[in-house]
Amino acid sequence: MEQALAGIRVLDFSQLLQGPYATQMLGDLGADVIKVERYGQGDIYRGMTFFNQWIAGDESACFMAWNRNKRSLAIDMKNPEGREIILKLAERADIVLENFRPGVMERLGYGYEALKKINPKIIYCSASGWGSDGPYFKRPGQDLLVQSVSGAIMTSGKKSDGPVSLGTALCDQVNALNCVYAILAALYYRERTGKGQEIKTNLLSSAIAFQMQDYFTIHNMGASFERPESGIGHPGNPAPFGTYKTKDGYIAIAMSSFEKLVEALGDASLLKYNDPQILFDQRDKIYYQIQDITMTRTTTEWLDTMLALDLWVSAVNRQDEVAEDPQVIHNKTFVEIDHPKAGKLRVTNIPFTMSETPGEIRRASPLVGEHGPEILAELGYSDEDIDKLVASKVISVESSPKNH
């Protein structure tokens, strides 16, 4: 089947996480994503990894996770010949995405106004940390920093914990979704009018929008959220909302009928708390009383009892247990792909299906500059021209071991 974005070309200047995730999503839908990387070194994320462990000797899991379905061109962006190549690509591109600090692309000569002159239909998305101007725009923008400024870091954990950062780079990922959201809208607008446009997104605005219901409440009801000392799952919610220890793990209890929960727990004395205000005002006390009971049985035993009463509950999985969850297996959430250097890799699948234009994982993450010769050949460069560009260090090429 044809993919939804087949024929769309993306020029991807982004590094690290938010930009690469956005362009990966476009690539998953069929776009031809050309990742423009630093000569020889590539994306900064290629040099960062978890646990100080590497795949196939020197490949970063952090980089590989966000860069499938792309071709890599490693090029000296300041070299006149390199600049000529980039401008030729920009002439043919539908979308440009970059996440440098504001002003960097303009100084290099690749800002929106410069590329718009050679390609008026171009859709140009800049993804920054704090915004394109303002008091913070020169600061480095990074997920933890944005969690902190946006208030998100003070919404999890216990009152006595101090700030509790989220265990994943959620601000980066939310802004990546906003980049794609805006780009797809711009593509639709261009389809109707023939006009391209400039898009600006930033981590801070996305992180605050992600907390929309919280800030709506704060600003319109004159209320402030205060974290409880227990494990209540949200600072604005009453008991029993939260996670509870069991005999062999944890169980999560969401918005459930308190009467049915009391029935499942088998302790009618808890019914004295069955009032919305009491459930909020005494939520810590109620939480610990419930947990004293949940610790007497296993997670599976509680799930069987509570799900039979249609309570909103689930097991709490560690990340190393998620792949074995029955629903995760059924959804085919993890799949195997082939990497040119690392061989078989297990990756997260595209998280949705489309009946007519399904997404597809066509390529693993590229090696540095792996597709440079292929991309230049499409621009009309001869083999001799390409060899000269390699020899003069305008482009660098890392070949797959399979091609030796």
Description:
The protein is α/β, with parallel strands linked by helices and 404 residues long. The protein has 2 domains: 9-210 and 333-403, Rossmann fold (3-Layer(aba) Sandwich), CATH 3.40.50.10540; 242-324, formyl-coa transferase, domain 3 (2-Layer Sandwich). The chain is built from 16 helices and 12 strands. The strands form 3 sheets. It has a 7-stranded mixed beta sheet with strand order 6-5-4-1-2-3-12, sandwiched between helices. The radius of gyration is 25 Å and the shape is elongated.
Layout: helices, strands, pairs:
Layout: E1 9-12, H1 18-28, E2 32-38, H2 61-65, E3 70-75, H3 80-92, E4 95-98, H4 104-108, H5 112-118, E5 123-128, H6 143-150, H7 170-193, E6 197-202, H8 203-210, H9 212-221, E7 242-245, E8 250-253, H10 258-265, H11 276-281, H12 283-294, H13 299-308, E9 313-315, H14 326-330, E10 334-339, E11 343-348, H15 372-378, H16 383-391, E12 395-396
Parallel strand pairs: 1-2, 1-4, 2-3, 4-5, 5-6
Antiparallel strand pairs: 3-12, 7-8, 8-9, 10-11
Helix pairs in contact: 1-7, 6-8, 7-8
* Percent helix range: 25-40%
| Main β-sheet, spatial strand arrangement | 6-5-4-1-2-3-12
Shape: elongated
State the distance separating the first and last CA atoms.
33 Å
What is the number of beta strands? Answer: 12
List its traits:
2 domains, alpha/beta, Rossmann fold, formyl-coa transferase, domain 3, 12 strands, 404 residues, seven-stranded mixed β-sheet
